Amino acid sequence: MSGGCTDAVLRTGPPAGKEMYRTDPVDMKFPFSQHWVGVFSDDTTSYEANSYISMTSLSDIDHDGDLDFASGQRQDIGGGMIWWEYCSPDHWVRHQVGSGHTSAAGGNAADVDGDGWIDLLAGDSWYRNPKTPRTAATWQRYGIGAPGAEELIVGEVTGDDHPDVLYVWRSIQPQYWTPGPDPTATWKHVDLTTDTSKRQQQGGAIGDIDGDGDNDVVVGYQWWYRNAAGDGSRWEAVPLVPSGFDNEPLTAVGDIDGDGDVDVAMSTHFGSTQGAARVAWAENLDGQGGQWALHSIATGKSWTHAVVVADFDNDGDQDLFIGQNVGPQWIFENSDGHGKFVEHQIAVDSRGHEARVGDVDCDGDLDIVGKPWGQASEGGEQQRPPRDHVYLKNELVERGGLPRFDAQRGPYELLPASKLRGCAAAPALQSSAVSSLASPGSTPVRSSAR
Description:
The protein is mainly beta. The chain contains one helix and 28 strands.
């Protein structure tokens, strides 16, 4: 399958009633136009139909070269899993995936069975890509044997270039699950610690914290876990920031200060009132995760539920996207390349719960796709708000900025997740743009693509 779109006629704007979701950029340094993607369900009479939406991912599901979006519902609602085919900024096509999974919220994407097609994860299950995802009625679902956790982070911790999945939830130990030779059978899992006091609701990240060439794990702001043997078999809990931040933040990793090691960004998870949520980053002082310095970035936010470390202005250093459930969205510009941040509001009223980042349209800059959580009176939502998925298209290249194409350009999940296909630049662009924007800001985290 290549190019085209399931629908013969493409929309050039939002449908009637959704005009509010089509907006021009509000910040010319980070110029994002806003576009309507769709709603989880067409059922407008039932509160549950568009509630508790999570399990997001951004990957090339249909092998047409651009990125598609996926989302699912918590199991007690029963809406199952869907994916959105990208056709144009104002035209996305909703497709069914399946139902029957158990998940508090966590999901992701990975090539689970190694067949070259992206599969979808939803809590205790994975859905196999049928290789005809645009026309298939449903995807086959298989049980993992895992709990339906709050957060699922895809990375690679065993050293075999197969996708491993970090599970974080307050009712379980931080743990990872990995498929065996037969991915349809129960997966193997390893707990990172036996200490129940280290359980977290969410806040997982995967990256090489100690610089030894294998990936470690961050869970919350107080602890990171050293991959002691390099193959995921033994883990050592190492202090990160013992105090000074809020419990159970969202986290992301990347070389924020440009010194070649992995730092940690964090944003408050539970911030029910204005001013309750904060944003900060922890500097890896010794490059080995043994000494850290906490730097405040912002206060006065509320209900932030996405944090992504990525280069949004193509200048070679790492900026920070912070997504709010409903309302404003922000990028913090890494103004000096060493962790001095300047706040930019990139959208006035958008949807940023579990927003994902990647070059959706393959034009050489990073875009954002998000949605609401959908719980009444939580995260800035009213009793029955519009629960729409939203695409924030980066207009940097269209406005004269240099495009950037390289292997680290995503898709960025809440952490780098497995990707199969990336945008390919024309040879002339590849040589000029990539060489001028080489990798000091690239996130030094292995992809689990194969």
